[in-house]
Write a structure and sequence with these properties.
The chain is an alpha+beta fold and 175 residues long. It is built from six helices and eight strands. The protein has a four-stranded antiparallel β-sheet with strand order 2-3-1-4. The chain has a four-stranded antiparallel β-sheet with strand order 6-7-5-8. A hairpin with a 2-residue loop joins strand 6 and strand 7. It is globular and about 50 Å long. The chain starts with a strand and ends with a helix. The mean pLDDT is 94.
């Protein structure tokens, strides 16, 4: 079965460095096949017959041993990623005028009620909940007015890992 590992909080501002080549080798050493990485932000695609719980345990342990620090990681099946990407309206893009992101939710906060905890000005931000993620879309001219930039300081932000819409679509196979 195909899976995607989403590593949270790596390679940001030169901190918590994780080279994608090392990540690929590490996942292969665990026994996963057809391993590839996408971008430098901690996206790895692979295949295994292991279940998600076992993958989560094995990857977390191996990352700590390899890099010497804990890396919060979310494991999603290819089907889960495809389901999330399928609800993103086609017109929601990342370009000069608009910004669309997918916040992949960790199990502890994966519910529609989590949208109520995102403290933004809703008149500027469109939000969609789908099991496993919250997707937001905003016109760039309204970004500062929306207070979306303050999400990083909220406790909830620690329970999600955010990818732009292009990355989410790529991971879903919508290349």
């Amino acid at each position: 079965m195909k899976y995607i590992a989403l590593l949270r909080g790596i390679n940001v501002g030169g901190h918590r460095k994780v080279e994608m080549k090392r990540l690929k080798s590490l996942l292969e050493s665990i026994g996963y096949s057809n391993v590839s990485t996408y971008l430098n932000s901690g996206n790895a695609l692979f295949e295994t017959q292991d279940n998600q719980k076992q993958i989560q345990e094995d990857v977390s342990k191996a990352l700590l041993e390899e890099f010497g620090f804990e890396i919060t990681t979310l494991i999603k099946s290819e089907d889960e990623i495809k389901k999330i990407a399928s609800v993103i309206p086609v017109e929601w893009q990342n370009n000069k005028e608009q910004k669309t992101d997918v916040a992949f939710l960790f199990p502890e906060v994966d519910s529609e009620e989590t949208m109520d905890e995102i403290n933004v000005k809703r008149e500027y931000v469109d939000l969609i909940y789908v099991e496993g993620a919250i997707i937001w879309h905003i016109m760039k001219k309204d970004y500062n007015k929306s207070q979306l930039n303050k999400l990083v300081g909220q406790k909830l932000y620690q329970q999600m890992t955010v990818r732009n819409v292009n990355t989410a679509r790529f991971l879903a196979g919508d290349k």
